[in-house]
Amino acid sequence: MNNVLNRLVKLPKTIWEFYYEGFRNQSKWSRQLWLIILIKLFVMFFILKLLFFPNFLKTKYDSDQERSDYVIDQLTNPKKSIK
């Protein structure tokens, strides 16, 4: 029982060391690939969200109560058009 508990306590450190050593020993090409991946993730989740997914409820309704009423109405009667 004590052996299992010791393994569980050491697990986060073991995982951290695995990834730390892996990233530290990367070649030049793999570091460039990770940089490209991080840039693509930034573009996908930050830039595209700002450009293509505006906050619809904030632009159409002034108060939280109006927003919540609209959401409840859309969930219960989805065939209605926008107010």
Task: Describe what you observe in this structure.
InterPro entries: DUF4492. It comes from Labilibaculum manganireducens. This is DUF4492 domain-containing protein. The protein has 2 domains: 52 residues, no CATH class; 30 residues, no CATH class. The mean pLDDT is 87. Helix content is 80%, strand content 0%. By secondary structure, it is mostly helical.
Q: How do you describe this structure in short?
A:
The protein has 83 residues and is an all-alpha fold. The protein contains 4 helices and no strands.
Topology, element by element:
Blueprint: H1 2-24, H2 28-52, H3 56-60, H4 64-76
Transmembrane segments: 33-53
InterPro entries: DUF4492
Organism: Labilibaculum manganireducens
Low-confidence stretches: none
Helix content: over 70%
Shape category: flat
* Number of alpha- plus pi-helical segments: 4
> What's the rounded overall pLDDT mean?
87
> Compute the gyration radius: what is it?
24 Å
Main structural class: mainly alpha
Name the beta content range: under 5%
Could you give the distance between the termini? Answer: 62 Å
Number of strands: 0
Q: What can be said about the biggest beta sheet?
A: none
Number of domains: 2
The sequence of SSEs as H and E is HHHH
Keywords: Membrane, Transmembrane, Transmembrane helix
Organism: Labilibaculum manganireducens
Transmembrane segments: 33-53
Pfam family, one: DUF4492
